[in-house]
Amino acid sequence: MIVALSGNAAVAYAMKQVNPDVVAVYPITPQTVAMERFADYVADGEVDSELIMADSEHSAMSCCIGASVAGGRVMTSTASAGLALMWEMLYVAASNRCPIVMNVMNRALSAPINIHCDHSDAMGARDSSWIQIHAENCQEAYDNIIQAVRIAEHENVRLPVMTNMDGFTLSHATERLEVLEDGQIQKFVGEFNPMYPILDVDNPVTYGPLDLYDYYFEHKRQQVEAMELAHDVVVKIGEEYGKLSGRKYGKLEQYMCEDADIGVLVLGSTAGTARVAVRAMREKGIKAGLIKLRLFRPFPMEEVRNAVKGLKALAVMDRSDSFGAFGGPVFSEVRSALQGEDLEVTDYVYGLGGRDIRQDQIEQAIQETAQVVKTGKVKCYVNYLGVR
Q1: 151 within 8 A of 239, measured Cβ to Cβ
Q2: So where are the chain's domains?
Q3: C-alpha dihedral sign at 233, 175, 171, 329
Q4: Looking at the domain 252-384, which fold is it?
Q5: What region, left, alpha or beta, does residue 145 occupy, with left being phi > 0 and alpha being psi -120 to 50 degrees?
Q6: What residues contact residue 218 under an 8 Å CB cut-off, 6+ apart?
Q7: CATH 3.20.20.70 fits 2-245, yes or no
Q8: Measured distance CA(278)–CA(255) in Å, rounded
Q9: What residues have CB less than 8 Å from 94, skipping those under 6 apart?
Q10: How far apart are CA 234 and CA 238, in angstroms?
Q11: pLDDT of residue 33
């Protein structure tokens, strides 16, 4: 079915079709509209979900954790400072292996207060043991949420999943979407089969006990293994969803990379503008290609290494900065993944606080990267696009 939905509405619609047991939320721009729409579904009796209006984002995630360990299928949504307020509980959710699905409408962190898009919130949570998937458009945002349920609940994973979409750029943009029927989604996600629910009194378990040096290390190592196993699960679920919807998903996507000399790597909605820039550069004689990162956690190291084969240089675009580090978060991951590869990698930090990224600015990054290949010299490894 073809519909016109904003990103917020697409998120709410996907959640309605999943029909989770519990949704605990606290409103924050630019996520508020999605939860208002979902609250309408609850009020109209279109879902069976228990909607908890929490008193803060910290409380919302605490409610989600409680509902999850009790054996419920749980979802939520937040952004920016809301995600930051959840920080403590993000680690608890992952450590307790709660398969919670949370949509994040990516927004800048204060201060100064800014309600517009960058990736500071999600990148700040990158080491919390949440799987992270990023959407380019509203269609992907809808599809990602549905797949995230299966990924999180897979018996080899059992980790929470954060589906990301750019605040306002996508959350408030209306696009043409193809949505599936409710019955198709229900069949795809299936019935939730909780592992070790705390309400199973015949098989008592303990969650969140004191865990000292005799076992803590091993429990963290188990989380690492679950993250590693998530690689194959993400691909498997993406292929299965492709058979259902006609839209197959993997860890990353390549565009015009077959014969490319210069690559540009992005995640999020900027990928659309980058495609146009790549085509424009081709017309000017520069063999450019695009690598769109969809899965950020676990980081797809092997896929990135394969994607850059044949490239002579790569420009990484970061919509957040890592203060005190050498470059932004995506740049750091890519540089580590490409250790030993014979190509120069440069970073372009852009779009902080919602500042628009223009086609000509991406072209500038590509041209500067091409100059690196031509001269064999890098003028600056970490660059800032569009800053005055």
Answers
A1: no
A2: 2-245, 252-384
A3: positive
A4: Rossmann fold (3.40.50)
A5: alpha
A6: none
A7: no
A8: 9
A9: 128, 129, 130, 159, 160, 223
A10: 6
A11: 98
